[in-house]
Design goal:
Elements: E1 8-11, E2 26-29, E3 35-37, E4 41-42, H1 54-70, E5 79-86, H2 92-103, E6 109-114, E7 125-132
Parallel strand pairs: 5-6
Antiparallel strand pairs: 1-2, 3-7, 4-7, 5-7
């Protein structure tokens, strides 16, 4: 279940295997919600620096997601789906440490793919965020 009033409901059906990570199998959006689609968020900081460290890019990316949501008067509870694109193996301890702080007990649906490259050669991770509110 979810904290986001009647706009978003999340659950994991009993008739399929539990998620292998911290995500929800199903995210349902009410009919009266507005949909928000954001450009992929990357690990750039406010000074336009893209760190070479993968985990710092993860930290910056999650911070940028919170800020872009805030720009639309949304919170992480409004996120319905995140697609994760990474060029190297994710340090799940670091990733979930931040993910769990941002999304809490009812995380959004998630898809993960490892790719050869992203839009800029220095990028190691990009998160594609969908929200409803």
């Amino acid at each position: 279940m979810n904290l986001n009033n009647n706009v978003i409901t999340r659950y994991n059906p009993e008739n399929i295997a539990k998620p292998v990570g911290n995500y929800s199998h199903v995210t349902k959006i009410s009919r009266n919600a507005e949909m928000y689609v954001f450009s992929g968020q990357i690990g750039i900081d406010q000074t336009r620096n893209i760190p070479t460290d993968f985990n710092q890019q993860v930290t910056n990316t999650m911070s940028n997601i919170v800020e872009v949501l805030s720009s639309q008067k949304l919170t992480p509870d409004h996120v319905i789906k995140i697609n994760i694109w990474a060029t190297e193996e994710i340090d799940w301890d670091h990733f979930y440490g931040i993910w769990n702080k941002v999304f809490g007990m009812t995380p959004p649906s998630m898809t993960i793919a490892y790719v050869k490259g992203l839009g800029l050669p220095e990028l190691k991770i990009e998160l594609d965020v969908w929200a409803a509110g």
